[in-house]
Amino acid sequence: MGKRARRMNRRESAEASNGAPVASNDNRGSAIEAFTFGDPEPVLNRASMLDMLECWHNRRWYEPPVSMDGLARAFRASPHHSSAIILKRNMLAASLEPTPQLSRRTFAGMVQDYLVLGNAYVREIRNRLGDVMRLEHCLAKYTRRGVEPGHFWWVPGYQQEEEFAPATVHQLLAPDINQEIYGLPEYLSALQSALLNENATLFRRRYYENGSHAGYILYATGAFANGDVDAMRDALKKSKGPGNFRNLFVHAPDGKEAGIKLIPIAEVAAKDEFLGIKNTTRDDVLAAHRVPPQLLGIVPANAGGFGDVTKATDAFFELEIAPLQSVFLELNDALGFEAVRFRERAKAAD
């Protein structure tokens, strides 16, 4: 039998590489080298993490599957996102007929929590006889569902938790397909679009604030005197910051035609991408909220417009506001009396 192959050490590998054939397209020795790189991509997509999260508990209350603080901060990420939620809240609050136990202000807070966070909580305030005097809105951002049925906790911060009296807090939740402890808002599929809309606006603001508008490559191949290249480099550096948009004069007596080329790399593309991102993300957000664009004051791009606003209002009320009213009417079953009552609405188109 022959001897077993032995792995070479580093010194032997280096000696063996000397004189080895080199590929004809190997450009490692050239003066110019171009390459691209990016951030490492996770093997597990973040979008699928939500499907695997559970509502873990600390033996007292359950934690929500999504950060309530993150959803609250994303509420004002996009003007179309917050405006659509505020429109639904105002229309629901205007359709409410206040009762001795529930005021319009308390109801508006519940509606906003339900639309933004997917959960709404109301607390019974009872008199000494045990009767319900009024209903108090509990912020869904800090309210947690207890492990024991009928128990809820108020958790505004670390070591500031407080348990509500049992059977005094009622929860309304938007159904979720992965768990039944907490509700999730319906717009989660368009949340990334709302955040992208915000990022595009912030990027454009920083683009104008920092004064770095020189998105180009200055390509020079002509013959220049000593110090000319350094002078051009200093002039380009001074074109940034306050007082930018200056004109640049270059004199090359012995230069050739097209010896200096200015190649823009970002200016025109950034304008087109900005408008495209803003319009596309706006459509995604409006589709998730199912709000007609004319109700949000969006200017139509075509001469025909969006159609009759009164008909759009009637359709929106029937398809969106009326189903939301039925969600809050479920509170009457939990309370045992009629605390939520809506007035009948006449169609605007009639």
TrEMBL record:
Please name the InterPro entries in this protein's record: PBSX_Proteobac, Phage/GTA_portal, Phage_portal_PBSX
Top-level lineage group: Bacteria
Record region (Disordered) = 1-25
- A Pfam family found in this protein is Phage_portal
Which family is this protein grouped under? Belongs to the phage portal family. PBSX subfamily.
Could you tell me what this protein is called? Phage portal protein, PBSX family
Organism listed in the record? Novosphingobium mathurense
